[in-house]
């Protein structure tokens, strides 16, 4: 995989001419309720980058409030407009970002817009910049199902998703909504690839509960303990047969190495926005590939812009488990992009786009509408972005 390693850093490009931020709010087809909550209206920032006579797009997946991560749509607007963008406009690379710490979601938004534009300038697909051979043409995917009002409601949603062709089901859990629900689902679907995501809702005192889950043949349990913990996950994993997958805790490739080498988990969820960009994502992928660690691409309810980038990453050869990338219809109707992604029901995959650049186009009317929706919400309840 050293051929991948050598191509992590792009050679210099044309100078970056201009970057425009578009904060948007998009109604979700279905709210994804997790242990930390859920929103009916999803914010995002679309980053429009002009370079060499072409335009490329990136997406920032920060939420309204610091729930999943400390970043919010407000902090991302601040960091992008006051620090990150001034450091790279006029430049031929993104090295100006190296002097800043943190804010991975804001960083990924800018980095992905840049890579999309570089690909556009060169007339290649963005995935071709990843330096990997043997990229897949179809990505294995699953669907993430939020906390429902009852077990019957959960079974109804699963039935619908199963009928659509999804063959890996992830269920969000929280204390009081876990083992009983999971048992009921397993009873109805004895063979499906089933997993649970706790989004950090438990403590080590809950180890006996997770040991009970061992009897359910789950594919993995995602992020059971603290969002910034690795040590205690290392105490829990040896007590379980079911692999632990780390999401929130993994901020970079070094965290992944620490977690794997200390036995804190056996699977990594790679979200490019959580690790601060594509270069860090490719490093993490290369580490997992070489070490034989199972890896999949996580989701943050992306619009078509972010979804296309997720699919490019999910095509990498080291992505060995189904990713949290569902069809457009599960998230937005309509999406902000003209293109939609559909599920290949025969094998629970989504075809990886292979057009020039990011392979999607932003619909100007829908963008204007989503920006207006953001402004309306921002005024009524959220932070003071100017
Ligand atoms: O923990 O994986 C998570 C969405 C928002 C925040 C955190 C998570 C999620 C998902 C969504 O599970 C998966 C998807 O985008 O389909
Ligand atoms: Mg998760």
Describe the fold and architecture.
Strand 5 (143-145), helix 4 and strand 6 form a beta-alpha-beta unit. The strands form three sheets. Strands 5-6-7-8-9-10-11 form a seven-stranded parallel β-sheet. A three-stranded antiparallel β-sheet has the order 1-2-3. Helix 2 (73-88) crosses helix 3 (104-122) and helix 8 packs parallel to helix 9 (278-291). Residues 1-6 have low confidence and may be disordered. 33% of the residues lie in helices and 16% in strands. It is α/β, with parallel strands linked by helices. Magnesium ion binds next to loops.
Report the mean per-residue pLDDT as an integer: 95
Number of strands: 12
Backbone CA Rg = 20 Å
List the strand order in the largest sheet: 5-6-7-8-9-10-11
Query: Rough shape?
Result: globular
What gap, in angstroms, lies between the N and C termini? 46 Å
Strand content: 15-25%
Could you estimate the helical fraction of the residues in percent? 25-40%
Bound molecules: 2-succinylbenzoate, magnesium ion
Task: Tell me the major beta sheet.
Answer: 7 strands, parallel
Structural class: alpha/beta
Count helical runs: 11
- Unreliable stretches (pLDDT < 50, length at least 5) are 1-6
SSE topology string: HEEEHHEEHEHEHEHEHEHEHEH
């Amino acid at each position: 995989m050293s051929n991948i390693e050598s191509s992590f850093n792009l050679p210099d490009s044309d100078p970056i001419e201009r970057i425009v931020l578009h904060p948007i709010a998009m109604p979700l087809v279905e709210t994804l309720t997790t242990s930390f909550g859920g929103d009916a209206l999803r914010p995002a920032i679309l980053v429009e980058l002009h370079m060499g006579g072409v335009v490329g797009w990136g997406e920032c997946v920060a939420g309204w409030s610091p729930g999943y991560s400390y970043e919010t749509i407000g902090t991302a607007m601040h960091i992008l407009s006051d620090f990150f963008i001034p450091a790279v406009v006029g430049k031929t690379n993104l090295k100006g970002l190296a002097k800043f710490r943190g804010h991975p979601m804001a960083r990924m938004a800018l980095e992905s817009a840049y890579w999309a534009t570089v690909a556009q300038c060169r007339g290649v697909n963005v995935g071709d910049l990843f330096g990997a051979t043997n990229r897949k043409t179809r990505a294995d995917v699953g669907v993430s199902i939020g906390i429902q009002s009852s077990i019957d409601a959960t079974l109804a949603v699963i039935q619908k998703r199963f009928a659509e062709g999804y063959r890996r089901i992830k269920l969000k859990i929280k204390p009081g909504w876990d083992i009983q629900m999971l048992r009921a689902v397993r009873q109805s679907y004895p063979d499906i690839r089933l997993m649970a995501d706790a989004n950090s809702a438990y403590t080590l005192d809950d180890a006996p509960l997770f040991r009970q889950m061992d009897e359910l043949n789950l594919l993995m349990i995602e992020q059971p303990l603290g969002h910034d913990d690795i040590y205690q996950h290392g105490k829990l994993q040896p007590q379980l047969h079911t692999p632990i997958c780390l999401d929130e805790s993994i901020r970079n490739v070094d965290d992944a190495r620490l977690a794997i080498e200390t036995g804190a988990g056996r699977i990594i969820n790679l979200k490019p926005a959580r690790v601060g960009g594509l270069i860090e994502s490719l490093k993490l992928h290369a580490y997992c590939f070489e070490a034989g660690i199972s890896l999949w691409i996580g989701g943050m309810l992306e619009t078509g812009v972010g979804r296309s980038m997720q699919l490019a990453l999910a095509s990498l050869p080291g992505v060995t488990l189904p990713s949290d990338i569902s069809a457009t219809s599960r998230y937005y109707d309509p999406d902000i992009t003209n293109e939609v992604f559909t599920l290949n029901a025969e094998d629970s995959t989504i075809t990886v786009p292979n057009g020039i650049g990011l392979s999607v186009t932003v619909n100007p009317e829908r963008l204007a509408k989503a920006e207006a929706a953001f402004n309306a919400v921002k005024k009524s309840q959220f932070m003071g972005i100017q």
